[in-house]
Amino acid sequence: MIFRGPYPDVEIPEVSLTDFIFNSIGAFKDKTALIDGPTGRAYTYAEFESGVRRVAAGLAKRGFKKGDVFAIFSTNCPEYAIIFHAVAMLGGINTTLNPLYTAEEAAFQLNDAAAKFLIAAPMTSDKARAAAKESKVEEVFVFGESDGATPFAELLESDGEVPPVEIDPRNDLVVLPYSSGTTGLPKGVMLTHRNLVANMCQMDGLDYFHRDDTLLCVLPLFHIYGLVVVLNMGLHLGTTIVTMPRFDVEQFLALIQKYRVTLSHIVPPIVLKLAKDPIVDNYDLSSLRMIFSGAAPLGPELSRECMQRIGCGIRQGYGMTETSPVTHSSPADPAKMKLGSVGTPAPNTECKLVDPATEAELGPNQEGEVCVRGPQNMKGYLNNREATARTIDADGWLHTGDIGYADEDGHFFIVDRVKELIKYKGFQVAPAELEAVLLTHPAVADAAVIPCRDDEAGEVPKAFIVTKLDTSAEAIMEYVASRVAPHKKIREVEFIAQIPKSISGKILRRVLVEKERAKHAATEVV
Q1: Half-sphere exposure of 308 toward its Cβ, with a 13 Å CA cutoff?
Q2: For residues 331-346, b (16+ Cβ closer than 10 Å) or e, as one string?
Q3: Residue 362 φ then ψ, to 5°
Q4: Which residues on neighbouring strands pair with residue 353, listed in sequence order?
Q5: Closest Cα to residue 148, out of 165, 166, 164, 133?
Q6: Could you tell me if 258 and 242 are in contact, meaning their C-beta atoms sit under 8 angstroms apart?
Q7: 360: β partners
Q8: Measured between alpha carbons, how far is 281 from 287 in angstroms, rounded to an integer?
Q9: For residue 346, what is the DSSP state?
Q10: Measured distance between the N- and C-terminal CA atoms of the chain, rounded to whole angstroms
Q11: Is 221 in contact with 247 (CB distance < 8 Å)?
Q12: Dihedral (C-alpha) 436, 440, 442, 444: value to the nearest 10 degrees?
């Protein structure tokens, strides 16, 4: 059975992403577009557009051209939007890096994406230069100033004369974020101009938010949720966007109060803070009209508790990097929402549920793998036809790796995952990547990593270790922590005699997951 939402299909213009946004903002160029929350530094829409054109011209004079890749290795700031659209205007491809990556993790992405230029925040500039040395990056820029990097301000000094570039929205890439997909190591997700424009038009049809909204962008812009749903959608609609460089609960609350924020897109761990942290009572959050939660499931009890405390609504959505990202959303009308549900399929989106074992299509109230088809589906994984074929079948259905069901009204609920990824505070952690690190430890003979439930983070990585030399759980965790970004750290270690594997040698993580769940269930009963 194919499920569709209650929304009419929307028209998707054949236009580049930057032209799509510039075409939207002509009527409100004097309005404030972007504010750096901590400093108050701001750009109007006219200043944003002028900055994009000047930076694009500056990059073109340095030899950056259509099809070249530009890496952004930075925390959130207003200039992130300017460099992103300058690259897009030239037909270039943005690849966004997690600012918490180590130099080694950054170098992997720079090489895999074949990045030509790189820009960093001052806090990431040392790692950026180290990573650039291990890649073919020709020049490193920095927002502000840092030794050994070209100041971003130099790009703004151009005349703004951008060379004409023909962009094919359906085929030309605009962004290359990295995702582990349904399994394995991070892969470049090829998203075209049309993918993003389509998803923004679909969000228009969902009545996401409005021109008079002030958004707080605490979600990191390297992540598709922050990049498209908050930044680009906010610019398209003419909102005012307040950026935060990283999440800090006190600063988050203070910025809502200071700028009279009406809407904030967050993840379930922040919803938990809003529901339970005593410090919330110290701030005036009365301007907050709506919270939008995504990137991980949010239960009905926590939703209700947060709404009652803050006095605003909560909408949920669902999607993934590979779908640009939105595929489902709860309704704008609170009377039609179902707490705990991610809502119905977006406009122009088909959805079905299939039995993971047999691929048979399922009906309402039957749990199966969620599959989606629509114009927001990625072009594929960069240089990885095998992984692309595993994810998008011959009929164009993208297999999400998530288990869910649709009720009799077509509202979807996500209950589990087929895929092996760990979702730590909404961020993807690939077990295979951590296992590869663990196997370099001199005391480790074999290893497997699984998700372990956690009230605050949702899931945390737990390692099962077979040793060949004496070691401790603390030593193992410290070893991994020094080699990966903080969200990937191993939080728990258990030593076992043997890792369960199939005849072909594949780790049977499901066996370990079920063992872990049974242990927790027994503890809860006691």
Answers
A1: 7
A2: beeeeebbebbbbbbb
A3: -115, 165
A4: 370
A5: 133
A6: no
A7: none
A8: 14
A9: P
A10: 42
A11: no
A12: 0
C-alpha–C-alpha distance, residues 504 and 526, integer Å: 38
Rounded (to 5) percent helix, strand, coil in the chain: 35, 25, 40
| CB contact burial 213-246 (16+ within 10 A = b; e otherwise) | bbbbbbbbbbbbbbbbbbbbbbbbbbbbbbbbbe
Tokens of 226: 């922050």
Return the pLDDT at 185: 77
- 284's CB contacts (< 8 A; 6+ apart) are 257
For residue 9, the 8-state DSSP code is P
Cβ 42 vs Cβ 82: under 8 Å:
no
**pLDDT tens column, 138-152:** 999 999 999 999 999
Three-state DSSP string of 258-305: HHCCCEEEECHHHHHHHHHCHHHHHCCCCCCCEEEECCCCCCHHHHHH
Cα–Cα dist 98/270, whole Å: 19
- Indicate the residue type of 331: P
Whole-angstrom Cα Rg for the chain: 23
Report percent pLDDT > 70 for the chain: 97
Contacts of 108 (CB under 8 A, 6+ apart): 186
Q: Give the pair of three-digit tokens for residue 415.
A: 């209950």
DSSP assignments along 31-100, one per residue? SEEEEETTT--EEEHHHHHHHHHHHHHHHHHTT--TT-EEEEE----HHHHHHHHHHHHTT-EEEE--TT
Task: Report which of 104, 36, 120 is spatially closest to residue 72, judged by C-alpha positions.
Answer: 120
**Per the omega criterion (within 30 degrees of 0), is the bond before 500 cis?**
no
* Domains within the chain, CATH numbers bracketed: 42-167 (3.40.50.980), 422-525 (3.30.300.30)
What is the number of residues in the chain?
526
DSSP 389-439: HHHB-TTS-EEEEEEEEE-TTS-EEEEEESS--EEETTEEE-HHHHHHHHT
Residue type at 216 in one-letter notation: L
The stretch 367-395 carries a mean pLDDT of 96
The tokens for 30 are 């004097």
For 184-239, what is each residue's pLDDT tens digit?
678 999 999 999 999 999 999 999 889 999 999 999 999 999 999 999 999 999 99
The gap from C-alpha 313 to its chain's centroid, in whole angstroms, comes to 23
